[in-house]
Amino acid sequence: IGVAAYPAPHPESATFALDRRHTAEKLAAGADFAITQLFFDVREYESLVDDLRGRGVEVPVIPGILPILSLESLRRVLSLCGANIPGKLYLELEEAHAKGGTEAVRDAGLAFALRQIRSLIDMGAPGIHLYTLNRKDMCCRIAEEARF
User: Which domains does the chain have, with CATH numbers?
Assistant: First the structure.
């Protein structure tokens, strides 16, 4: 049984602490694993896992990664899920768009996703869940370039 986990609090959570407690309760109730909502700062994932481990919850937490395909799709996804994006990354994506349009944003997004994945695996993530928005080609490219 898998459950959702939010590295940043769920948009409807009253507080950060309550969200983390709720996540721990779901996992302790018998979940075999969790998959996180997408995030762009690996420190959010690390903080979530550290918090859960501190509460005695040891089930695997699989990070959810969204390869950025375009600024338009990124804006739409962020508005739906409430995830945060580091300002520096957003500025890099805007700069890529100004220089080369959607293709340049997709290339920058792929490079960022690969850096995230490598960092997460290095810190002990049990695997990666890709939010590919039905883009099988992107999934295959990431798997090939990440050497999975």
Answer: 2-146 (3.20.20.220)
